[in-house]
Write a structure and sequence with these properties.
Number of helices: 3
Pfam family, one: DUF4148
Helix content: over 70%
Distance between the termini: 73 Å
Structural class: mainly alpha
Shape: elongated
Keywords: Signal
InterPro entries: DUF4148
Number of domains: 2
Radius of gyration: 22 Å
Largest sheet: none
Amino acid sequence: MQNHTFRASTRLRTLATVVAFAAATAVSFSAHAADAAAGPVTHASLMKELSELRAVGYDLFDDNFPESLQRAERKLEAKRRAQEQGIAVQGSSAS
């Protein structure tokens, strides 16, 4: 009976590992597909993004990498969402 329990727990761990790997692969694939759909990355687009990140407080020389970059990316995303909502609100009030 103990051997059967060991096999079952080993199978569950293996299944959990396979499921976790499949989920990580799916997330990675969808992120790559989204990047590919956005078009090629150019020097100009990188410089624009860096400029936008610096405008929300990102410091290239901050010792807290990657936390400082992730914080700036969240701020930039929030700023973009707010701008999109502002445009949507302005557009709907004009009609």
